[in-house]
């Protein structure tokens, strides 16, 4: 998977891309990340990458020519890659979007700054607009890092069997069950007995029940979007009976 990141601040990526899972993906040659400084494509003496907005108003807008030249240069090297714009106006970045992006040949991710980019960039080059959520970041760099991280986890072979993605939250439409490690008791709170039992079938059932409990409690909206088995429906009925008992 090839990631090309177009930014005015390439230095921001040094540490996050040099650690842990992303580092492993790079070392195993499963992902490849190139950073491109948009300013390098500005042709004037001061290498200007931003200018005041037409129509007036506060802030600066990223100029069209340097960014267009940068996109064209990167796209010519990676013609099959998809041009993605980070933007608070884009579609929300979710697990399903990450799965979709992980199928692409490569991603060319544009990081905006200031008031954003000249709209003509979107019209001419952008194939996908992605937002991290309904809030405004100071720039697209953190959004690009989130996209690279979440997509990299889904590239086959990046995660070892030791940190499988299948049980992670959202992968089956539910939140993950609670996790514990040693000690078996901390400040009077014990790890559920079943997890110490060694009975794999009981552990599987407990995890599924608790996964459903978490989802029902924290993100009930997810339950409407996922396919539930007969066992899941029985578990949910059990959880609803528990709630009724508490209410009485
Ligand atoms: N004036 C713009 C916001 C610009 S913020 C507007 O109101 O829509 C500057 C840059 O930060 C954007 O161009 C984008 O690249 C990035 N950014 C800000 N919020 C973001 C979000 N929620 N998700 C992804 N990128 C975001």
Describe this structure in words.
This protein is an alpha/beta fold and 248 residues long. The protein is built from nine helices and nine strands. It has a five-stranded parallel sheet, with helices on both faces. Strands 3-4 form a two-stranded antiparallel sheet. Strands 8-9 form a two-stranded antiparallel sheet. Strand 8 (185-186) and strand 9 (189-190) form a beta hairpin. The radius of gyration is 23 Å and the shape is elongated. The relative contact order is 0.12. The model has no long low-confidence stretch (mean pLDDT 96).
Roughly how many Å apart are the termini? Answer: 55 Å
Largest beta sheet, briefly? 5 strands, parallel
- Which small-molecule species are bound to the chains here? S-adenosyl-L-homocysteine
Order of strands across the biggest sheet?
A: 2-1-6-5-7
Mean pLDDT: 96
Quaternary arrangement of the chains shown?
single chain
Please tell me the total number of domains.
Answer: 2
Could you tell me the strand content as a percent range? Answer: 15-25%
Helix tally? 9
* CATH fold title of the largest domain: Alpha/beta knot
CATH class of the largest domain: Alpha Beta
> Would you identify the CATH H-level superfamily of the largest domain?
SPOUT methyltransferase, trefoil knot domain
Q: Tell me what the CATH architecture of the largest domain is.
A: 3-Layer(aba) Sandwich
Helix vs. strand class: alpha/beta
Overall shape: it is elongated
The count of DSSP E runs of length 2 or more, i.e. the number of strands, is: 9
The low-confidence runs, each spanning 5 or more residues with pLDDT under 50, are: none
Radius of gyration: 23 Å
Q: Give the SSE order as H and E letters.
A: EHEEEHEHEHEHEEHHHH
């Amino acid at each position: 998977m090839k990631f090309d990141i177009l930014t005015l601040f390439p230095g921001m990526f040094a540490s996050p891309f040099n650690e842990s899972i992303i580092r492993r993906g790079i070392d195993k040659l499963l992902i490849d990340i190139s950073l491109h400084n948009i300013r390098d494509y500005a042709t004037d003496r001061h290498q200007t990458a931003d200018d005041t907005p037409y129509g007036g108003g506060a802030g600066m807008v990223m100029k069209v020519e340097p960014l267009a030249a940068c996109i064209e240069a990167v796209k010519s090297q990676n013609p099959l890659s998809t041009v993605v714009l980070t933007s608070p106006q884009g579609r929300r970045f979710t697990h399903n979007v990450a799965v979709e992006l992980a199928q692409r040949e490569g991603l060319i991710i544009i990081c905006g700054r200031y008031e954003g980019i000249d709209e003509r960039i979107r019209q001419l080059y952008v194939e996908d607009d992605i937002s991290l959520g309904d809030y405004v970041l100071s720039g697209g760099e953190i959004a690009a890092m989130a996209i690279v991280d979440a997509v990299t986890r889904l590239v086959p072979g990046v995660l070892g069997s030791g940190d499988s993605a299948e049980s992670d939250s959202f992968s089956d439409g539910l939140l993950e069950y609670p996790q514990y490690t040693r000690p078996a008791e901390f400040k009077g709170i014990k790890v559920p007995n079943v997890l110490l039992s060694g009975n794999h079938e009981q552990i599987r059932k407990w995890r599924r029940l608790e996964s459903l409990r978490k989802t029902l409690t924290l993100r009930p909206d997810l339950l409407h979007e996922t396919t539930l088995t007969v066992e899941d429906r029985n578990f949910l009925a059990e959880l609803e009976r528990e709630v009724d008992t508490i209410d009485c």
